[in-house]
Amino acid sequence: MLTLNLLNQKAGNSGTAGMARTMEPLAKKIFKGVLVVELVGVFGAYFLFNKMNTSQDFRQTMSKKFPFILEVYYKSIEQSGMYGVREQDQEKWLNSKN
Prior knowledge:
transmembrane helix, Protein CEBPZOS isoform X1, 5 helices, transmembrane, membrane, mainly alpha
């Protein structure tokens, strides 16, 4: 094994250089995949927030199907200084039942 490594070093081939070259395309594919997943997540979150921010009916649908996501929405807009949206929604939904 030592002889093989010495021959590779004399020839200018280190044992890890060949392996690094074969790993580069895989690493690039993994990086691109992670980047695409992150971009889809960011645009998906933006779309969801924008839809909830502009449609009270959509927020009502979210309250039935995904109440935890709606809670995150309410908390985020309250953090930004917008208060009363939760109360307006609850009042409208309560009045629409009657």
